[in-house]
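R.M. (postdoc): so does anyone remember the format we settled on? I'll just put the structure tokens first.
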């Protein structure tokens, strides 16, 4: 199941969240799994739209799939290459006034998923959000 936009904007975030919640629960994920994935993907999509596309509309697709007991959300875009998995974790124990701005969204994406996998595409990015043990194994 994939939701595609030829020119996504921040106005599409609500529809993307609704799609994700429905797709995850339809595939057998819990409401908690859906909530975690919605928050993580919402952060990533917001980053793509505001930073990757610099606020302009741009192509975006969000796919959801089940594989064994895993749920995967695949986010693809055509923004300049950016690998969020290489961003170092923030020092959350540092006083707020000493912390640099930003970086907490990627930290949140990591905390809400079991894995983030990045792949550079020819002309874009693919980010896969993985929730393990999210689905009951299929009965044989």
């Amino acid at each position: 199941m994939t939701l595609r936009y030829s020119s996504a904007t921040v106005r599409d975030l609500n529809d993307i969240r609704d799609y994700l919640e429905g797709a995850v629960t339809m595939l057998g994920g819990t409401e908690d799994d859906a909530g975690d994935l919605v928050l993580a993907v919402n952060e990533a999509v917001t980053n793509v739209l505001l930073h990757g596309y610099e606020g302009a509309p741009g192509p975006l697709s969000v796919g959801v799939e089940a594989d064994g007991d895993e749920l995967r959300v695949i986010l693809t875009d055509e923004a300049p290459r950016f690998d969020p998995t290489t961003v170092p974790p923030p020092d959350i124990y540092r006083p707020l006034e000493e912390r640099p701005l930003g970086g907490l969204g990627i930290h949140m994406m990591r905390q809400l998923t079991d894995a983030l996998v990045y792949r550079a595409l020819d002309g874009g990015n693919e980010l896969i959000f993985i929730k393990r043990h999210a689905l009951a194994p299929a009965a044989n």
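R.M.: ...and that's the designed sequence above, right after the tokens. Also worth knowing: Residues 2-131 form a domain with the Heat Shock Protein 90 fold (CATH 3.30.565.10). The longest helix spans residues 31-52.
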